[in-house]
Amino acid sequence: MPGCNHCPSDEAAKSAANNPGFRKVLWIALIANAAMFFIEVGASWSAGSVSLLADSLDFGGDAANYALSLFVLGMALQTRAKAALLKGVCMGLYGVGVLGFAGYAAMHGQVPSYATMGVVGLMALSVNVGVAAIQYRYRNGDSNMRSVWLCSRNDAIGNLAVLGAALLVGVTQTAWPDLAVAALMATLGLTASVSVIKQARAEIRGETPAGAAHSHGHSH
């Protein structure tokens, strides 16, 4: 979910970089998120669901974040901070894009297919619960390890919101529950973007905000 930023201290980064099990978990999470991105993009257009589209972009963003995390794992704090700055900008674009789609759908969209939303939402929930399960053993590790687990846990909560929207769309036969969940996800993305960019810029300047090493702002 938006806000899954993890820039641990140098000692924490070395610990994560030297842990082959954690690297393997990141690779599994990357592949699973990338696969769900493509599945949900297609399903969102087929169903006419903005919340599914928002969730698909979230999966895509998480996959990119995992790839970036693998690339900078063990590198110096400033290098990771620059990567985090890029993540923050992308999260902001995600939020603006989803709000734009939601606004367009509110004016020109139709009632989405709640059946498709439900089926794909359950699939997404299963993937995130599975990824969170394999990350569970690292939940009390350094800030990098813990934040990765929190990302998947919070993403699963987002999937439950999509399932709730599907149920309400079916009951009300309107698109508003779908649009409301999409707007909520976009707002979370924008809020997390501001937080991540602020912390990353401070770290690039050589400052470390209090509690930054343990910041898991969430998203994703």
Automatic annotation (TrEMBL):
Residue ranges of the TM segments: 25-47, 59-77, 84-107, 113-136, 156-173, 179-197
Record carries keyword Nucleus: no
Membrane-protein topology: Multi-pass membrane protein
Cell compartment(s), UniProt: Membrane
Keywords assigned: Membrane, Transmembrane, Transmembrane helix
Annotated ranges, domain Cation efflux protein transmembrane: 26-201
Protein name: Cation transporter
